[in-house]
């Protein structure tokens, strides 16, 4: 943890609420780990600061130990003690902050969804900066993610740079503008930000609810670099329909705002070495993929009568963004088309969870349909490996990772053309796209006809064109969705920003 970067490398600190595999709710966790690993490989010193949740996967943290220090950080006008832990996750050094606060912020048995999330994460953001200040670190880049650690940007410039933690440029990545974490303005005072200074239209005031503050807006305003997770999504959020109220802020700050397509962690997602799978396989040995299909069918009690019966997979949080009504439709359409459908998903929205429990029960003993309504890392790997087709009918999708993971496992995506799906899935029947990029089936209109137009074509290709299908599977498995290229883009943004700061400092 005390090692220094190679002479040309940067010191980069990520402050985040998720990190795969120890604390993952969705794509954010994958991105933090994947991007950090790729940056580390490129010679930078990368460190991560996370909350010490009670519900983390502790068996995936190596050498976890408490430091012999007490970190005091400010909240509600007082100083609270924090215990600081360090450990290694996927080869990356991680600090875990455990607040000794009576409200037991990270002892809740879940990562998010608590009534006081704003307090929990504004406390964490401040404690993370306090840790950097007190440990005497001189980071070049502090990179925060989503609304939970968006507080870092205003806290840094308003409080911590004046205190002497002033070596860094701030990068903020928004993984989904749907979640902005707004709260009544007064709540901002707890973490020490000046409500009157911040609750202004050009700072943190929410653009529609004027008595509320908006952490994501604050990070857009206060960061040096603002990114989101795909070029198409970066365009969409600049429009009134896509920006969830922040389009004018993003347009105003568009010079520092860019969309970079996420990669996937190609070590964690590799069918040739994946220990979750019944049989490992690679692009030259697709028999292994078939064996995984047979094994999953047995495991789930699905019919194994016809090895060629196509299997459609879907792995997702069941929230409106993901097109839940279209997922439901795709289940019934797959049945009509004579395929099998396996859904792995869970919903934080009670009525959606209930609706899908109803469908799951309806098909409980069905030969061809299975819905598994929980979060299950191991099963997710098996479904990517076993399925032939993978459906992602999102209403909007900042980046989406499952389409890329599916391709790496030889499962062909059927996807709506939106956000990052539009930047990674290209229709096999679209002549305007060069052949080497055509890798799936897409549709534009988010309705049942749209789904049918792509899903039906996928079934046709699969059934009537075995050789072409196999070539498509091989092409998709060979596509490069690694972090290499995207990490280079982040590196370039970091370096440019650091260079600009140095020029400005020399002028002063
Ligand atoms: P989002 O971040 O909006 O949830 P992404 O496609 O970016 O969507 O990332 C989702 C990640 O979470 C993928 O790695 C996917 O495999 C995983 N995932 C989603 N739901 C489940 C589940 N029920 N069980 C296991 N993994 C899941």
SSE order and pairing:
Layout: E1 11-15, H1 27-41, E2 45-51, E3 62-75, E4 78-89, E5 92-99, H2 117-134, E6 141-145, H3 146-150, H4 152-163, E7 169-174, E8 183-184, H5 195-198, E9 212-213, H6 215-222, E10 225-228, H7 231-236, H8 247-252, E11 257-259, H9 287-300, E12 311-317, H10 324-337, E13 340-346, H11 350-362, E14 369-372, H12 377-386, E15 389-392, H13 402-408, E16 412-416, H14 419-424, E17 441-443, H15 448-464, H16 466-478, H17 484-507
Parallel strand pairs: 1-2, 1-6, 2-5, 6-7, 7-10, 10-11, 12-13, 12-15, 13-14, 15-16, 16-17
Antiparallel strand pairs: 3-4, 4-5, 8-9
Helix pairs in contact: 1-17, 2-4, 4-6, 9-12, 10-15
Bound molecules: adenosine-5'-diphosphate.
Adenosine-5'-diphosphate is lined by residues 26-27, 30, 315-317, 344-346, 375-377, 380, 399-402.
């Amino acid at each position: 943890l005390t090692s220094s970067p190679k002479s040309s490398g940067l010191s980069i600190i990520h402050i985040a609420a998720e990190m795969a595999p120890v604390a993952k709710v969705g794509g954010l966790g994958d991105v933090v780990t994947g991007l950090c690993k790729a940056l580390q490989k490129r010679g930078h010193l990368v460190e991560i600061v996370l909350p010490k949740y009670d519900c983390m996967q502790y068996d995936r943290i190596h050498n976890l130990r408490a430091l012999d220090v007490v970190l005091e950080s400010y909240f509600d006008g007082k100083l609270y003690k924090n215990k600081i832990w360090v450990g290694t996750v996927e080869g990356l050094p991680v600090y875990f902050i455990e607040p000794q606060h009576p409200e037991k912020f990270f002892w809740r048995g879940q990562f998010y969804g608590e009534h006081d999330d704003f307090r929990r994460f504004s406390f964490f953001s401040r404690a993370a900066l306090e840790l950097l200040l007190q440990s005497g670190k001189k980071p070049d880049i502090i990179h925060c993610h989503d609304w939970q650690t968006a507080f870092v940007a205003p806290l840094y410039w308003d409080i911590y740079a004046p205190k002497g933690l002033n070596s860094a440029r701030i990068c903020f990545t928004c993984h989904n503008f749907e979640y902005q974490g707004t709260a009544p303005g007064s709540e901002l005072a707890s973490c020490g930000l000046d409500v009157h200074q911040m609750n202004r239209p050009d700072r943190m005031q929410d653009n529609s609810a004027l008595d509320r503050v908006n952490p994501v807006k604050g990070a857009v305003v206060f960061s040096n670099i603002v990114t989101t997770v795909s070029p198409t999504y970066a365009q969409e959020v600049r429009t009134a329909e896509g920006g969830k109220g922040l389009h004018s802020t993003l347009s105003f700050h568009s010079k520092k705002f860019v969309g970079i397509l996420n990669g996937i962690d190609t070590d964690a997602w590799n069918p040739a070495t994946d220990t979750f799978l019944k049989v490992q396989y690679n692009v030259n040995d697709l028999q292994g993929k078939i064996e995984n299909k047979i094994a999953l069918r047995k495991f789930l009690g699905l019919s194994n009568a016809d090895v060629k019966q196509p299997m459609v997979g879907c792995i997702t949080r069941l929230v409106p963004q993901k097109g839940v009504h279209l997922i439901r439709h795709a289940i019934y359409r797959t049945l009509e088309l004579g395929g099998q459908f396996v859904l792995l998903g869970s919903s934080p929205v009670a009525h959606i969870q209930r609706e899908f429990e109803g469908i799951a029960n309806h098909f409980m003993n069905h030969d061809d349909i299975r819905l598994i309504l929980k979060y299950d890392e191991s099963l997710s790997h098996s479904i990517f490996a076993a399925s032939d087709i993978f459906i992602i009918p999102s209403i909007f999708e900042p980046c989406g990772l499952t389409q890329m993971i599916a391709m790496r496992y030889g499962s062909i995506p059927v996807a709506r053309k939106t956000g990052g799906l539009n930047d990674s899935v290209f229709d096999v029947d679209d002549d305007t796209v060069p052949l080497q990029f055509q890798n799936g089936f897409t549709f534009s209109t988010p309705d049942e006809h749209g789904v049918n137009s792509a899903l039906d074509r996928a079934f046709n290709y699969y059934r009537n064109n075995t050789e072409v299908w196999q070539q498509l599977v091989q092409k998709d498995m060979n596509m490069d969705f690694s972090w290499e290229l995207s990490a280079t883009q982040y590196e370039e943004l970091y370096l440019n920003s650091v260079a600009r700061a140095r020029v400005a400092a020399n002028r002063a």
